[in-house]
Predict the 3D structure of the following.
Amino acid sequence: MSTKPDLVGILYSILRFRRVGREAILEFQNRHLRRLLAHAYRNVPYYRRLFERSGIAPEDIRSVADLQAIPITSKADLRAVPVQDTLARGVNPRRLIAFRTSGSSGEPFVIRRTGFEERLQDLYWIRATHYFGHRARDRVASLRIFQEGDRRIRHALRRRLCVDCYIPPEKIVQILRRHRPDSLGGYPGTLSLVAEVIARDGCRDIRPRLVIAGAEVLTRRMREQITEAFGARVYNWYGSREFNCIGWECKETGEFHTCDDNVIVEILKDGRPARPGESGELVGTALHSFAMPFIRYRLADVVTSGSETCACGEPFSTIRDVQGRMIDRFVLPAGRFLHPGEIIKAMSDGHPWIGRYQIFQERKDRIVLRVVPRVEPTREEILRAEAALKAIVGPDVESQVILVPEIELGASGKFRIARSLVSACRDGSDREDESADQAARPVGGS
Ligand SMILES: [Zn+2]
């Protein structure tokens, strides 16, 4: 009985899978799925009980097509049982690397992996960075939040510099000028703050060859701003602490190649698989997490389904777009939901005066767009943005565009493009306390 990821199979997939046919990937998924399920049934009490309750034996699931027989697991389900029940028998929790999810308040949720599993996961990220053009001898700078696991195992190489994204952007600029990275990574929010400082001070000596943004929404405006400041192409990737690499941006189509050999991604809309172009919630199965398995785990992200294989010719399926976390969905009157991604899409075209912004739900029936203008807008421009906002939120929700001098980072240190004061009963809900007392200058009517 295997209780460890299949090292040889994984190395092979990483080296070869960009050039194999789709069938090879499906075969790999099915084989590793069977291995994972047999392990989880035998060694992980939570999954053992889940299978028994639903009357399935691991042998019943032969392929990805059978996966739907297994009930979906949420973060709340895993939190509700003792930690030991979510881990494989025989692993010592104290010897695992622990990643705490960056929920701002709420109960913490800890994801655990062995050092071996974590290093294997790094290989999928490395494959993606190489696709983007990263080379082995590149100097790397990464703007991020430090985590316990990061300190223990990563970044032993001197050429790799981690910069705490909490420090002021002016300071980050100084550090980057000294380090001169070839490759720069970080959250879109931090990168665009740094880009603003660079644009303001006119310093043009931080010239990475590529910039990789991830972990939050990258708006078109942010992408332009970052491209302009660093004179480099910006790539986006998508992942989570539970699954690590879920997708990386295709250079040709702009969609995300799904990391099919690492995670089986299902996108569900009202419980059924979403069709291409439809948005739904992501449910994933981590093929190589054996110490703490995630099988049909609800990530609570909303994404748009893409195609079976990418139009560029690579054999990976695609995720067309990532809207963001379910938790960021706004609950509107009459039980309506609105994902702020819809507003982001509407604002990305035709409003060049809009710089950094935040979509803020003050009440169930009131949403404001807080904007830091790039240039002073005319009255007509503001009205046009308000009309676009109104068209999306609907007649029963009050809406307004408000100009603000700046937008603060959230408690987690990440920029949150959408925030809501309306609490809702959602899985993993960890709403941040927010006092709406930012210096705000209301303009226009609602
Ligand atoms: Zn592609």
User: Anything to note?
Assistant: Residues 329-442 form a domain with the GMP Synthetase; Chain A, domain 3 fold (CATH 3.30.300.30). The longest helix spans residues 22-43. The radius of gyration is 22 Å. The longest strand covers residues 354-363.
